[in-house]
Each structure stands twice: as C-alpha cells, then as structure tokens.
What does this fold into?
Amino acid sequence: MSLNKAASINIGDELAPRVKQIAQRQIDAYSGVRPKSIHTDVEWAQKKGFSAPLAQGLMSTAYVSQMMVDLLGEGFVRGGKINVAFIKPVLAGDTLTMHGVVKSKAAESDKTRVTVEFWCESQRGEKTLVGTASGLAA
It folds into this structure.
C-alpha cells in the first residue's frame, strides 16, 4: 500500500530547483512586440535605465506555477494560490533559478493544503521574486 500524496510531502522538503534562461524571443512572445515598451524595445528599456529589456513579472510566476504543478498536479490547478513580490528586475539574457521549500501543511476539508516558500535568483545571486504558493494534496 502506498502513502497518499499529502503524507509523502514533509515540512522542510526542498523542491528540485528549476533553471530558466530568459531569452528576448520568450519575452517578445509573452508581451507582444511593441515600440516604446521596456519589455521588447531595447533602446526604450535603455532610455529608462535598464541594460536590457525586462521580462514580464508574470513569467517568473509561471515558473513557480510549473513547480507547484509538478508537486501537486491537479491539486494546484484546482486549489492553488500564489502570493509573490517582485523585488529585482529580470532582464533579457538572465538565467533564473527558482527554489522552493515546503513551509507548512494544514487540513482543509478532506485534503491537506501544502504551502511552499519560493524565491527566484538571477545568475548574479540576486533574489528577483519572493513569496509563497499553496495547493491541495489528497
């Protein structure tokens, strides 16, 4: 007899880090190419003080979501919550590493809400996103 999903997740468990290369073409596809956009116009981004165009903040949130789906599957899709703060810009050409640690488990109806603390770091070692995500495990 195998353990249920909730029983197999322990407080303090580290999720496998996820590394993403942030390419301009991904930002363009996500944002839609437009003039005078800090996301897709190199000259405009530089005029606004950035060395390269910025990735949309929600791109990092999507990577956190991927990690939660890997952990909880449908329990995140149907019962997931995310609360994050974007604390440093992510630029085209950056490499992001997403980290997560299980912080808590709590009964919710007939399931268990699993909460994970997340943070993303650039190749410069700077945190770009911090927050939590949670979902339901059976």
